[in-house]
């Protein structure tokens, strides 16, 4: 799958070039217009044989959470801070890849044998963590890396279990991959826009300017979203479930999704026997937050894949969820572009 | 196969304490061209033998443990998630978000799941997670998983070793495959020299839980000298210099009650004679290595413990310097070469000590 290439590429927020280059190469021959805007968003216009009544924009973000080098100490150890929302507890005892030269390194921890009794009850503070690249001192380390280098998790794409995929950065390379599929699909007859945004994970930075330049009527955000299915949780506390179909957002920290679009999505899923689920949490947020308030505003819909262990080193999605999401979106394109009213309205 | 390749092969294989049988074939294949005979005993220790030039049956036993710390399945939840317990000394904070391999009737990959940060309150992040709060997600439903996985199956942390700057390597189970790598480099050296003692090289089992492997193999070999090759805490900024060894500066030679002082002095003499760097490692009581078990076998065995410096012990990113492996095996081959039957006077000296 293309998703493998996309997730093996590193694109920590603010440093999306490697991912953008892959996407650019993939979609170039299918695009009628393609450009990279001033802050790094990749914008694609695909003209259809049918004119759209609504200007429809599909958006996915290219960036991923990661780390950035803040200092190199005298002993050659690399200090860092997080880029995007990361639970610092997942960083311990992991391997990482630093900078353009892809220098490997490890985040270690104090041996259990030398810890004091209650030391294990507390999280290791971020400022006590560092990366060991094997260098013996500062100048040796400086030959390989520099302050400001971006650091990505070192995780392999693998398919496993009941048709699942494990990789880093599934949030939101999975959205990028679906959007690429959409652009490549020659059966889509309608005119539409696609944007691959930058810096979603550090505050929805890229989406606003992209929406401003496209000025859409309707925007559909394609995402990887929170999934957490611990056995002890009551069902209303489980935000999404793996393998239960595309996730339709209701509300999050940044957006209230358009009620009518939501209904259209649900009805389209039901009519075509595509499983779907609602996103049953108001935490988190995505590019819709900026897109819906750009210029005089646009209606937004978010369709996501349930992504277990999101923002950690190894996240998981389900392949059926992927195909069902692609299917739902392809069914939605003509409805959204034609501007048909939902039967219920 | 050079040291780098050998250590890569050794650490990219899986053998949690009690499950070392996984490693037998791989390790025997690496060693077989360099030894006179190979035996696997009833606990699963691999005993490699190399005959010396002596005619008095003088024997040295070298032990490096091949087992690694890991986890074990304790429950399969209705939704297919696995609950687990630790095997050996595991800091629960080091397994959060790790990828694992569940060694059922088929090897099943999995991920130790984490809560999305979007749903975590700020204070919650300050509390460390306990094993009982964690699950392994294999991506299988319970129905499909129970075809392959049962309670009691071993689980290992999945990690491919990485070569870092300065010929350093990081990965899981460097403790104590690095000791096995020392044995490998040593046996190659012994093949090009004449050595007086018979040499028994034992890849022991279960060091991380009970040291049973060293106990039983030392009993059956009954050596004149026992040497445990293990790892020592490598210096990093959060540790005391006095408790640690510097990476790349040679093996730590342990001093203390577990150690035969005459032999230790001999070893240091050899290091000085051949300009091999070494460091001191102080441990007043039992060392917590196979050396502790060997020392009290039968009527007691004079024992040495040699440690390869290693950072981040008992994590999945244990880090060693390949130079230290080489220094250790050079030191040992020179020590073994000329060591003869011990004069009883050493006992008196030892008792005075």
From TrEMBL, chain A:
Write out the residues that bind Zn(2+) 2. 171, 201, 311
Question: What highest taxon heads this organism's lineage?
Answer: Bacteria
Instruction: Name the positions where Zn(2+) 1 binds.
Output: 61, 171, 223
CDD domains on file: M42_Frv
The active site annotation covers 200
Arranged from A to Z, the UniProt key words for this protein are: Aminopeptidase, Hydrolase, Metal-binding, Protease
Cofactor: binding comment: Binds 2 divalent metal cations per subunit.
Give a GO biological-process term. proteolysis
Which Gene3D superfamilies does UniProt cross-reference here?
A: Peptidase M42, domain 2, Zn peptidases
Cofactor(s) listed in the protein's UniProt record: a divalent metal cation
Q: Entry's Pfam families?
A: Peptidase_M42
Molecular function in Gene Ontology: aminopeptidase activity; metal ion binding
The record's listing under SUPFAM superfamilies reads:
Aminopeptidase/glucanase lid domain, Zn-dependent exopeptidases
Record-linked InterPro entries: Peptidase_M42, Peptidase_M42_aminopept, Peptidase_M42_dom2
**Family designation:** Belongs to the peptidase M42 family.
Identify this protein by name: M42 family peptidase
Q: What organism is recorded for this protein?
A: Soehngenia longivitae
TrEMBL record, chain B:
- List the active site: 207 (proton acceptor)
**What SUPFAM superfamilies has UniProt attached to this entry?**
Aminopeptidase/glucanase lid domain, Zn-dependent exopeptidases
| Keyword match Transmembrane helix | no
Q: Which GO terms describe its molecular function?
A: aminopeptidase activity; metal ion binding
Comment on bound cofactor = Binds 2 divalent metal cations per subunit.
**InterPro entries in alphabetical order:** Peptidase_M42, Peptidase_M42_aminopept, Peptidase_M42_dom2
- CDD domains, per the entry: M42_Frv (cd05656)
What Pfam families does the annotation carry?
Answer: Peptidase_M42 (PF05343)
Q: Where does Zn(2+) 2 bind?
A: 175, 208, 314
> Which residues are recorded as binding Zn(2+) 1?
65, 175, 230
| One GO term of the biological process aspect | proteolysis
Swiss-Prot/TrEMBL cofactor(s): a divalent metal cation
Sorted alphabetically, which keywords does the UniProt record give?
Answer: Aminopeptidase, Hydrolase, Metal-binding, Protease
PANTHER family documented for this protein = AMINOPEPTIDASE (PTHR32481), AMINOPEPTIDASE YPDE-RELATED (PTHR32481:SF0)
Family classification: Belongs to the peptidase M42 family.
- Name listed for the protein in its UniProt record: M42 family peptidase
| The organism of origin for this protein | Soehngenia longivitae
Upper lineage: Bacteria, Bacillati, Bacillota, Tissierellia, Tissierellales
